[in-house]
Amino acid sequence: MSGIYIHVPFCKNICYYCDFHFSLALANIDNVLNAMLLELKLRASYLPDNKIGTIYFGGGTPSLLSSKQLMFFFDAIYQHFSVADNAEISLEANPDDLSYGYLKSLSATPINRLSVGIQSFNNLSLKLMNRRHDAETAKASLADCFDAGFSNISADIIYGMPGSGAETLCSDLDIISSFPVKHISAYSLTIEKRTAYNKFVKEGRIILPTEDNIIGQQAFLEDYLSNTGFNRYEVSNYALPGYHSKHNSNYWNSLPYLGIGPSAHSFCGSSRRWNISHNLKYMQYINSGQQYWEQEDLSLSDIYNEYIFTRLRTVWGADSNFISSRFGQVYEQYFTVSAQKYIASGHLEKQESVYKLTDKGFYIADGIASELFYVS
Ligand code: SF4
User: Fold this and answer.
1) How far is CA 324 from CA 236, 250, 318, 321, in A?
2) What one-character DSSP code corresponds to residue 48?
3) Residue 349 and residue 355 in contact, taking contact as beta carbons nearer than 8 Å
4) How close is the Cα of 273 to the center of ligand 1, in Å?
């Protein structure tokens, strides 16, 4: 089964660490949404099969949309695709949007999973991120999600903030654990080029924690969550049994997905496509029948490298039997020989034909994957 990703490219303000595509020009929402609905219709036959197992509203800030606006998307999706009865349907939401009334209106839509951008319960950290909510709002929003009838809730947190340490992380995790959240995405702060933080770091206005501090926070996170029943199933994602994100797992398992909206990416099994990251141009091009995307046809090496990159970040690991049957013996041999040094160093472990990162390996997952890439 395939997935549909809907990118809602609007936010109310700029978080200092964020490099996602979004616009603050909220007056354009309706026009851009209409163009996105047109894109859904135009691309009804993009996927190899039109059976949909997951739908994900990401952004940007999807919780800016009213339930009525969200229902326009469901009407279009249900009209053009065959959505599984048990489909996982997620919406990313910011705490300051989640009033009880709004949540009740969402509970009348097909959405059955909320991913709440908590980031921290520390007011100083929230201010340093330029988030719009404070700790009390974050707590109230989680409580309201459950009261409004949602049970499948994920919370996003960011650790490694300036001035942070294992104690600040512990405090955030203690508060999250007081709610019955089923999934936690925990990201270490990374400084992306096109962000305010990049400028602040260069100007010396913020000082990041040392590498040892970050490694200490990661180790603490891993211990804390495994002691409270959460399993790490991807470098930054933890879930109670049965509650991993099916949508994101499908990305990591190379299943096809259709991405709708400015900057959204799509994958049909043999090529990738990405939409223009500009709301007005996206709208103008779609409405006038011009091309609004770029596309890359993937070679066998590209597909192998993506398999290695995504699978090694997960608990499912990379399977040499699969590599042999999908890519051929040359790739399988290249993989098993290249992986040996990481098995010897304790970063990878082998269980039958499956190679998985150890706890030590998870810290340098991307570096290991890139060493195993096939360069022809
Ligand atoms: S983190 Fe989310 S809410 Fe903040 S600017 Fe980025 S997309 Fe918008």
Assistant:
1) 29, 21, 11, 5
2) S
3) yes
4) 23
User: Which position has the token pair 């960011």?
Assistant: 158
Neighbours of 108 (CB within 10 A): 10
Atom 4 of ligand 1: nearest residue by CA position: 15
pTM of the model: 0.95
- The answer to whether the CB of 22 is under 6 A from ligand 1 is yes
pLDDT value at 74 more than 80? yes
Q: What is the 3-state secondary structure (H, E, C) of 63-127?
A: HHCCHHHHHHHHHHHHHHCEEEEEEEEEEEECHHHCCHHHHHHHCCCCCCEEEEEEECCCHHHHH
Q: Beta-carbon neighbour count of residue 118 at 10 Å?
A: 29
Is any atom of ligand 1 closer than 6 Å to the C-beta of 317? no
Given this model, what pLDDT does residue 363 score?
A: 85
The C-alpha atoms of residue 135 and residue 172 are separated, in whole angstroms, by 10
Convert the pLDDT of each residue in 75-84 to its tens digit.
999 999 999 9
Q: Please state, in angstroms and rounded to a whole number, the distance separating the CA atoms of residues 86 and 345.
A: 43
Q: Is the pLDDT of residue 359 over 90?
A: no
d(CA 61, ligand 1 centre) in Å: 7
Q: Which residues contact 199 (CB under 8 A, 6 or more apart)?
A: none
CA–CA distances in Å: residue 124 to residues 9, 97, 147, 352: 27, 20, 28, 48
